[in-house]
């Protein structure tokens, strides 16, 4: 139990630090990387593999809200760059990240992979 608590705390601390650092380096789009990370905090345990096999309803609601925030091509590209940069540092399991959007029925059109070319996002 303490292990899960430590992981959740580490995830929250990393997310807060990431918000502070990335917000300062924001590209000026309506959806900052900090906004994206904040939106996905309810998905933290699922994404790092310490939660259930399927994302929670709260996680899916957050993913849907993030989808509503990223309305332009530039916002989706910025979101892609953010996800690509932050996933490894937060311990996100790639298979969980790839499964999140389909499991939540979110059509964000951003492949979640460290190899994605964000300039190709439309």
TrEMBL record:
Residue ranges constituting the Bifunctional inhibitor/plant lipid transfer protein/seed storage helical domain according to the UniProt record:
33-118
Alphabetical UniProt keywords:
Lipid-binding, Signal, Transport
Query: Which family is this sequence assigned to?
Result: Belongs to the plant LTP family.
Please, which domain of life does this record's source organism belong to? Eukaryota
PROSITE patterns the record matches:
PROKAR_LIPOPROTEIN
Name this protein carries in UniProt: Non-specific lipid-transfer protein
Q: Which Pfam families does the record match to this protein?
A: Tryp_alpha_amyl
InterPro entries listed in its UniProt record: Bifun_inhib/LTP/seed_sf, Bifunc_inhib/LTP/seed_store, Plant_nsLTP
Q: What does this protein do?
A: Plant non-specific lipid-transfer proteins transfer phospholipids as well as galactolipids across membranes. May play a role in wax or cutin deposition in the cell walls of expanding epidermal cells and certain secretory tissues.
Q: Which GO terms describe its biological process?
A: lipid transport
